[in-house]
Structures are given as C-alpha cells and as structure tokens.
Amino acid sequence: MKKTGAQILCESLAREGVEVIFGFPGGALLPLYDTFPQYPKIRHILVRHEQGAAHAADGYARATGKAGVCLATSGPGATNLVTGIANAYLDSSPMVAITGQVARPFIGKDAFQEIDITGITLPITKHNYLVLDAGDIARVVKEAFHIAQTGRPGPVLIDIPRDVFQQEAAFAYPERVNLPGYKPTLFGHPAQIKKAAETINTAERPIIIAGRGAIISKAFAELKELAEKAQIPVVTTLLGIGCFPESHVLSFGWLGMHGMAYANKAVYDSDVIIAIGMRFDDRATGVVSSFAPQARVVHMDIDPAEIGKNVRVDVPIVGDVKNILEALNQQIVPREHLGWFNQVDRWRDEHPALVIRESEALLPQYVIRQIYEITKGDAIVVTGVGQNQMWAAQFFFYDKPNSLISSGGLGTMGFEIPGAIGAKVGRPDDTVWCIAGDGGFQMTVQELATIVQENLAVKIAIINNGFLGMVRQWQQLFYGRRYVHTPLSGPDFVKIAEAYGVPALRVTDKKLVVTAIEKAMDCEGPFLIDFVVEPEENVFPIVPPGAALVEALELPRPEKVTRSSK
Amino acid sequence: MTTAKHTLVALVEDRPGVLNRVSSLLRRRNFNIDSIAVGHTEQSNLSRMIIVVEGDDAKVEQVRKQLDKVIDVVKIVDITNNETVARELALIKVKATASTRNEIIQIVDIFRANIVDVSSDSLIVEVTGDEDKVNSLLDLLRGFGIREIARTGRIALTRGGAGPLLVEESREVKAPKPPPKALPSEAESPPDW
User: Fold this and answer.
1) The CATH number fitting domain A364-543, selected from 3.40.50.20, 3.40.50.970, 3.40.50.880, 3.10.560.10
2) What does pTM read for this prediction?
3) What is the ipTM score, two decimals?
4) Residue A548, beta-bridge partner list
C-alpha cells in the first residue's frame, strides 16, 4: 500500500516513539501539516519563532533523555533553527530537526525561501540528510534517531523537499540501521580499565570530575559506588551538576571559571584526576598550561576525539561511562584518604563562596536561594546565560540529575523560556522554574504566547538588573568600568506578561520576595515575577581570563567565616 | 612541535557531499590540505580518500579522530609511518623550440617519463612517480619555461598483504566486536575501535 512522503514521515516518527513536535508551519511544509490531523497521537506545539522550537526540543531532550523534535519550513524557518541546533550540538543533546525544502526541480536555483540548510548545518550536526525520494524517508528517520540518541548524542537534521512530501511510495519501516561508518565503542578496553584501577588504588589525593556524560549515561549509581568505595571527593562541571547529590558528604560543588574556589583548589592539588564524561572545556580548566600540574589523568568518555584534545591524558578509556565504571568498580580497593578529605573540607570552610552578604538591597543570590528554600530543591531549573545562570547554579542545590538545564557550551541567551517550555512538556508533573536575565528574556519573549496557548505552568523569575550583566561585570573588572552598550533598557515586564496572558508581579523589596514566590507556586498556571535586583552585583568567584583555576578572585570575606547551611 | 606532512587514508561512503564534509572539517580546524585524491575501491559504495596535510603529530591525530566521527567516514588511518607505495601523476606543458626540444627529450627519457603532446612551441610531459621524482623533474624543466602543470596529488597503498584499510566483506551491523589489536600506527594509544 502506498503512502505519501508526509504520511511516511508521520508513521516513522510514531514508530520512533515521538510524542511531541515543536514547530512552525510554512509554504514548503503545507503537505505535511495537512497530514498531521491523521496522526492525532503526535502532539504539535506551535511556537512563535523557530529558534523557540529548537530550544524547546533541546530542553525536552535534556529533561527526558529522549530526542527532541523540532520542525521548520524552508529558507528563513530553517535558518532560524541554526542557533538552537548549534546549542544542542555543543551540549550533546539528542535532537532531530526536520526542515521543509523547496521542490526538487527548484533546488540550487535560488528559489523563493530556498536555502542550503544541509550545507549550513554541516559543522553543527552529527549528520544531516537531504531526502530526494519518499522511499528513503523511513530509513533516514530510523538512522537519524539512532545517530541522535546513541554514542555521544547530538542533533541530526533532515531536509525534505515539498514535492517529496507529496510523492507516493511503499512504506516499510526498517528493522535495523546499516551505518558502517558509525559504531560507537560502548565497553572500555579491559587493559585500560585495569590500568585505571591501579592508578586510582595507589592515589594519595584522588578527585573525580564528573560531567554531562555521567548524566547522559545515567551512571549515577556507579559513580556513587566509586566515590564511596574509595572515599574520593567529587566535583562536577557546570553541566554535570546533579549527577552526584550535592548534599552528599563527598560532594564538593563544581569547578571552573565561576565554580567554588575549594573545588578548583582541590583539582589543582590532586595527584589523580578521574574525569568521567567531561571534556576539559576552557571554562572548566582555566588556562590549560596550569591545570592540575601534578595530576595523572584518567579520562573516560564515549567520544574518542575528546580524549587528549585539551589536556594530556595518562589513562584514556573510550566507552559508555556507565559500563566502564561498572567494570572499574570491581577492581577498586576500598580505601580512605582521610588526610586529603579533611584538607579539602577545610578549604571549603575557608572559602565560603556561597555566603550571601548581609544587605537590605534585593540581591539576586537571595532570590535564587529563596526559590530553593520554598521548592525544597524539588524543581527543574532552566536558566538563561550569564550572571543569572551562574547564580542559579551556585545558590540552588541540585540533588537529582537533569534538574539544572542550562546552555553551557554555546551559552545561548534566550534559551531560558523555550528551554523551560520543552522541560515542562517533557516532565509535566515537575515544577519548572525559569531563571531569566532581563537581556535573555527579551530575546525569546514571544514564546510566552506558546506558554499560554499550551497552558504550561512554567514559573518565570526575571533577574532584572537593567544590564547585560555578565558583560558589564567583565567591563567593570577588566575594562576599567567602561560600560559600553551594556545598560539595557527594557519594557515593563509585568505588563508584557499580562498582555500575553501570564499573571505577573514585580518585586523591588527584599521583604516581599518570599510571598511573591509562594504566590507563583500557588498559582495553577504560568506565573512571572520581575525581580528588580541590585544592579551592579558581581558573580564570585571568578577566574580571570588567562589565569589558573587557583587564581580565582573571590568575594571579600565577611568577618565571621561560617559554612553555608544546605 | 615539529610539523610534517602526514598522509591520511580514509574509506568513505560513496555519497554526494562526503568530500564536502571532510574538507569542511579540515578547514574548520585550520588545516591546509596539500592534496586530496578520491577514487572508487574494490567494493562498490565505498571510496578511498587520500589526504596529505601538514601539521604536528598531536594536531593531525586530533583531526584524524574528528574525521572518524563523520558518519560517512567508515575508517581513517594515518599511514605516514607505515611502509607505503606512494605515487603521483603530473602533466607538464613545457616551452620547447626546435633548439631545446632534444635536450628536453633527453631529460624526459632519464626520468622514464613520456611525451604525450607536441606542438611547434611546446611539449606536454607525463610523469608518474613519488613526489620527489616529480619535483625533481619539474625543477629541471623549469629552466625551459613551464606553461602549465596539472598534478593529481598523492595516492598510496601500504605495502604487504593485509593493510589497515582492507575493505570488509559484509556491511551488516553485527554485535559489538571484541576490541581489535592495535594498528601499527596506533601502537602508542589504545585502540578506540
């Protein structure tokens, strides 16, 4: 029985278990949209800008672990997806982006709304396809989902011309994929694992750095076992937050440019670094030449190209980190490193970067801390990029994986609102708080309409300081306080939210923060709070560019040094 | 780090756009491609791509790993340190008058090259050999005045029966294989296939 290309696409998506598509129609997609009503099981969420569709698919993927699907038409629709696809690529989010294309006879003729999207997305996709025959659609979809979701996840783009949607072909969904060029290594080499075990068993000052790979691999139990068995302190990267409960006694926060000073110090002084699913990104390492000079590095990752890319590695292990840890743990000897542990613990007391300074002013850190207290940490936090992002990572404590969703690699402002939409759609029973900067908020504000149309109970907190915060901070610290084009005027955010149909409040007084958050939580649907915060507040610690991790600038310490309560 | 010319050999799927993916990646990592030669292999649907790049060992290894990630690249090996047979073909159009023609013919004979075109004021010389041979002939002919050169770039095969790039018989996806033995050029780093 023959079906049209559009029907074959829908059938194939259904076979892949796709439940949601974030999309925006257009001329090239007309035949596809006309077919959607025949497939009511696939929920289509209409966004207001294709960038929102891509970020929502990304947020959905990070919240659920399944590939997020976004859909855009040819030409400008497709190019509007590019930022979101690049964002997913750099943070290894599984995504399948489907774009319409002009009819086959028009390809290459600079036709109306034609763009070479496969050419444009070459460097930012794991793979992409231009489908020239409806008979190929089923195979392409199967391959796309396989590539997107396996190995190191990433975005895959499928470009389908309008007449291919209308072309008829026989439909047979393939059982298996045939990709001779794609065979991710899943199990670590036994000799390497043995070498790693020896290195770890003889370490005096070991430390674990766990990244997003540990979350993607769901290696939580195995990571905990390793840490507890050999009593090794655990720090995470920004994107690894949540893979190890931050309330655990062995948890020492996260490292990097704005990470905890004690985490950075511990890494610097360690003699064995066990890197699990992280890629030694420059934000995490500081200047590479001074990174952990005395440490031997055991690096386990599913992507062989990451091993040895930025730092010299002594024991490389390629594979799925869950499998590797399972095999490794059997060879780990139970041990204690009491002296080392006490040392790191002492550093934590001496560098209490998480103390909120005493002030009558409305501090952004205070806002984040209150959201944590009131939700009791039981929420998914989706952040923007910049100061709001760093404070959200610092002053909220994450015990569960995939509870912090943040654009790390690309650092895309505007991710916050659509990312929160995707997270809420993926996990409707969880509380979702969107922490937005006033700059990022204005970049994708139009998606408030999507929130209202779909009645998504997303809670939005705007950290409103009237500046492009992080850039201003750098201008203050490194450019002689010359604020060039960083003062950011904005509209009355409360009026904007209400105009879209989202109930909203403004808070300017510290004493009213708690009631505002409680009101947001009590409200059944979406809610927005505009927190007008102290304008020139800075994120500390900060490792200046070109400096080593241990050369962080810290907040001037208050007289009484106390450990922040968790 | 010292830079040197490296020869990468890749088996790639024979599909439109593969060359683009490979060259895009090299461009992105700021590599200049000395030469690139692609052709069909003994198995249909697979092509062999021979790329010569200049760079230090660590950078070239990183590029090799990145190219390996490209879905259409089935296998890629750096054969710089292997025993190989490498050849290049060049067509050289040299200025030749009645008085210089004989001298040119002598040089061409010494190099066991061929003359494939004659006109009243030029000759086209065809030469096959390794890079050094081709460069030497070019240096000698330069004195006469070279009008045009067309070079194919290096192609190479490793010596011996079984090479690291033997095309497999079956293309079905099987159960995960046990880790393979280390390839000669990867003796230092563990196998990641």
Assistant:
1) 3.40.50.970
2) 0.91
3) 0.86
4) A286
